[in-house]
Amino acid sequence: THGGDPNWGRIVSATGYAGVPFDPAGVNLKVNGFPLYERGSPLKFDAATVSHSMQNNRETHIELSLSEGDARVRFWSSVAERKFSAHGSRDLDHGRGCGRGSPAGE
User: Within its chain, how far is the Cα of 97 from the centroid?
Assistant: First the structure.
């Protein structure tokens, strides 16, 4: 989400690397409530509007849904410094990344 780029391809692609089988035609993606991808296909959307929503809000909400199952999860992540995100560094001297997952609603 660094730079406010609503890159649906990166998010959907990462879903495929999770190692869990799913039907690609059942993938839906919203960023800050804006639908970007639905039923396995990209949607037309105003990239500038979505980008603005990402840049001008403290939080960016990414909602990814699959057609299989009924399980839910909520995941929080943060990056302490732009340098961490800009360079993809995992060196804790340059920025800390943290993530925490829990079942939705907890």
Answer: 15
Kindly report the backbone phi and psi dihedral angles of residue 52, in degrees, each rounded to the nearest multiple of 5, phi listed first.
Answer: -60, -40
Q: Is 27 exposed, middle or buried (0-12, 13-18, 19+ CB in 10 A)?
A: buried
Closest to 24 measured CA to CA, from 35, 36, 6, 37: 37
Residue 47's closest CA among 104, 92, 90, 4? 4
Give the separation between CA 13 and CA 24, rounded to whole angstroms: 10
User: Residue written as tokens 């396995």?
Assistant: 40
pLDDT tens figures, 3-35: 788 889 888 998 888 888 899 999 999 999 999
Summarised one tens digit per residue, pLDDT across range 49-101 is 999 999 888 888 999 999 998 888 888 887 655 554 444 444 433 333 344 44
Torsion sign across C-alpha atoms 63, 68, 71, 73: negative
